[in-house]
Amino acid sequence: MANVVSRGAQERGTRTLRAEGALKAIAVDQESPERVRRVLEQALVFAGAALAAVYAPSQDGELLCLMESAGVPRTLYGLRDSYPRAGRSPVAEAHRDGRTVSLSPAELAEHAQARRVPSGDFFLTALPVHGDGGGCLLAVSERPGGFDTDDRKCLELISEAVAFPAPAAPAEGGELPPGAFSLAMDTGRVRVGDDLLDLFGLDPVEFDGRVETLLSLTVPEDLPSLMSVVEADHMSIGDRELEFRVLQPTGPPKWLRLRGRLLPGGEGRPARLVGTVADASTLRSDVTDVARVQRLAAALATAVTVRDVGKAVVAALRRPLRADRIALAELESDRLVVTVLDPPEPEAWPELWRTEWRGEWPDAPVRAMPTLAAALREGRARIWPAGTPLEPALGEVGPGGLAVLPLPAGNRMAGCCLIGWDTPHDFGSDERALLTACAGLAGQALVRARAFDAEHELVGMLQRQLLPRRLPRLPGAVAVARYLPSTAGLELGGDWYDVIPLPDHHVALVIGDVQGHSAGAATLMGQMRTALRAYAVEGHPPDVVVAHANRLLMDMESDLFATCCYVDVDLEEGSAWCVRAGHPPPVLRYPDGGTEIAEAEGGPPLGVITQADFPMSPLRLPPGTVIALATDGLVESPDADIDEGMDRLAARLAAATPADLGLVADALLGNARRSDDVALLLLRYDGLTLRPLRESWTVWRVPQAVGHARRFARRTLRAWGVTEDLDTVLLVVSELVTNALVHTDGRVRMDLTLVNNRLRVAIADASPRSPVRPTSIGWEATGGRGILLVEALSAAWGTLPVSGGKQVWAELTLGR
Q1: Are 677 and 483 in contact (CB under 8 A)?
Q2: CA angle at residue 338 from 335 to 339, to 5 degrees?
Q3: What are 153-167's pLDDT values in tens digits?
Q4: Where is the PAC domain positioned along the sequence (predicted)?
Q5: What is the DSSP string of 148-193?
Q6: What residue spans of 420-490 are helical by DSSP H?
């Protein structure tokens, strides 16, 4: 017979037996106002539910109203405060038919009364509650497969234990218990118990019965949260709890805790908020307060990143547990990677941890720490009191006691949380329940946050691939750029920048922003950046480059528009031309520290008007001047217009030291809001240390044209003091000029540039067709040897597109 009983107990499962024990312990205190909430919490602990709620009939019997809940906020699953008792909702069917109703995600999508949550799939189970006023227990699971057999047995036990009585409103003329109140939601009149006015410092004789009188004594910072409870428009059926402060005649404000319940009204009766207010310092420790679990669930519901999850867990556990240190780590394969440490100082943690600070755990494979590996294998919270022999890497975390919380997520472990105490710590039953409940919530949130982090990193990687990988080295100038993607959501941004080296020591600085945040905006951004670079390299002036880009965007028939600022800088002369297309102007910082927002006339954004004018504005750049170009994400905010943002940018640029542009860029981005992506481009113009010598010659199409070109080249080089390699230079000039005259029509121009001993010969013509190097030449061939001669005599040669044609160039090193 004993064997039969043993087998029966084993079949019921250890988890079910533990749930029975916990529910019996809670049932002892039937009068506790937190009994129902503590019962619901067991669904989080033993059934792995993300949410547990109980519904009970209203006073008129028409509705099933939410009376209590625990876990993740129900709004994330589209659950309502009440359901018609005669309707087809899972709550009503379970209550009306006296049977369990279980729905999968697919069934939920088809159910007439259910609404799918946008963040993911979930399973829903509704069980009837018998006894007292009846009702229904509703549980939600995010785990794959939903509730298993043991989970459903635990839920059945909880539905038997919850037995929520139908709410009975205090009689209108009856006495209220000490510290209690009853607020009529339509008139704002409030009746209070004997001790409640003492907490507010009011004389019962002088109290006028208005809720506004009590609210006027609240600390202003706490008033909004308190108003959200006492205003009917912001209140939902069920319990509410919060702490707030009231002003005292002397000394600091007093902390009070309000626990209230909104009771629905019937025919001719207004809804009423009833509850209690107590001195928060006289209440039992926060660790026994199941509201901590709900607060953590609410915080985790809004936690986006893995670090946000860690901070929420630390905030929920360290203070109520009076712990000395908490560590949260993700489990990646068989390694634990530390995410959050509190306190963050290395000195607060074991010596072994400091060698791999904020990286992998010392002896990182989990199998190297048997105690921790066993806890993760079992998947339940483990607690070791002071003096327990543990591995040094674990034991030194909590000399006075250590708790290890595996963080489950579905059928796998997402990570673990370590909580340590320096002095001997006693672990109560409520504390163990809090740890277990928090572990399940944190594990599910950690998996969601990890997926968000991975997607956000992918978005950032795609964005970076559309931007320059590195900026070019510039003669006489230094350029740096920064890009910060938005942290609000996973959409791609449309901000871009570019630095385009141009011939004759010119450089084009480009910054722009495509409307919107989407894959379409990012794609258009890449197209516009490529188009502007192509038009600039072709040799067009700045206004023509921007006009061509505008016409291209109009021809693409996109619904989006783009803003752009294009600055062509002449590094030899220290001057620039600026063209704006609906974009903020550049900010100039001069060598004396003064700043100026450039008065550059602007045109409309790209893609708005087909025939638009984009005027050019001149800029003077003394050596040491810094040019700053930014997108509106840096200079515009909801509380200030773009003019104020530009003034702030100019002031911060004036206060910066331009010796290290990277530090300047980081300082300017220090307070950037991340609700929008931000691009910043800085260029410091230092001036060329050696100015090149330049001369040009227009080659007329006459029989002696090549001879005239050679004569001009010889005369120019002698004027520059060049006496060596003249024959080589003249031969290259002859071949390039001959090719241009023979194979092209129109104007031909020759440019000579000398820097140190490097001579550049450039021949520009009106044909876009580049010369082709012949692969082989026979003895009988009459042409084709010119390019081979140029290649043999030059250090380098090539072609460049210029406006309306091309430029063939060759560089020779003189005096070799």
Answers
A1: yes
A2: 130
A3: 989 998 888 875 544
A4: 240-292
A5: -HHHHHHHHHHHHHH-PPPP-PPPTTSPPPTTEEEEETTT-BEEE-
A6: 429-465
Lowest-pLDDT choice from 73-77, 224-228, 297-301, 753-757: 297-301
DSSP, res 233: G
Q: Cβ distance 661 to 480 under 8 Å?
A: yes
Six token digits for residue 564: 């752009």
Instruction: List the one residue out of 657, 677, 644, 684 whose CA is nearest residue 482.
Output: 677
What is the DSSP code string of 525-544? HHHHHHHHHHHHHTT--HHH
- Nearest partner of 773 among 747, 735, 734, 805, judged by Cα: 735
Q: What are phi and psi of 208, to 5 degrees?
A: -90, 0
Contact between residue 200 and residue 211 where contact means Cβ atoms under 8 Å apart: no
Tokens of 677: 């992506």
Residue 736 above 60 pLDDT?
yes
pTM above threshold 0.70: no
> How far, in Å, are 333, 506, 560 from residue 549 at the CA level?
49, 20, 14
- Span 233-250, pLDDT tens digits: 434 444 566 778 888 877
Structure tokens at 188: 């704002």
Alpha helices in 221-305 (DSSP H): 223-230, 291-302
pLDDT digits (tens, 9 = 90+) for 80-98: 878 888 888 898 889 888 8
Containing 110, the helix (H) or strand (E) segment is helix 105-110
In the chain the first and final C-alpha atoms are separated, in Å, by 108
What is the spatial distance between Cα 499 and Cα 481, in angstroms, rounded to a whole number? 9
Torsions phi, psi for 345 (to 5 deg):
-70, 135
Which residues are CB-neighbours of 36 under 8 A, at least 6 positions away? 54, 67, 68, 162, 164
Q: Which of 192, 195, 191, 182 is nearest to 282 (CA)?
A: 195
CA dist., res. 602 & res. 580, Å (int): 5
Which token pair is 666? 């980081």
Q: Give the three-state DSSP class for 473.
A: coil
Radius of gyration of the CA atoms of the chain, in A: 38
Polymer length in residues for the chain: 816
Element (H, E) at 10: helix 2-12
Compute CA distances 28 → 21, 50, 334, 550, 780, whole Å.
11, 26, 44, 77, 114
Where does 12-77 show beta strands of DSSP type E? 51-57, 63-71
Helix (H, G, I), strand (E, B) or coil at 750: strand
β-partners of residue 652 are none
Residue 179 backbone zone (phi > 0: left; psi -120 to 50: alpha; other: beta): left
Q: What is the pLDDT of residue 499?
A: 93
pLDDT tens per residue, range 600-625: 888 899 988 888 889 999 999 999 99
Q: Distance (Å, rounded) from C-alpha 586 to C-alpha 563?
A: 13
Closest among 308, 527, 285 to 425, alpha carbons compared: 285
Q: 401-436 burial string, b = 16+ CB within 10 Å, else e?
A: bbbbbbbbbeeebbbbbbbbbeeebebeebbebbbb
| Phi and psi, residue 277, nearest 5° | -125, 130
CA-based nearest residue to 631, from 645, 644, 619, 620: 645
Rounded to whole angstroms, what are the CA distances from 662 to 191, 567, 635, 676, 680?
Answer: 64, 20, 19, 22, 11
* Long-range contact set of residues 398-402: C-beta below 8 Å, sequence gap at least 24: 398/324, 398/325, 398/422, 398/425, 400/324, 400/424, 400/425, 401/425, 401/427
d(CA 379, CA 560): 51
As given in the structure block, the two tokens for residue 700 are 């007329």
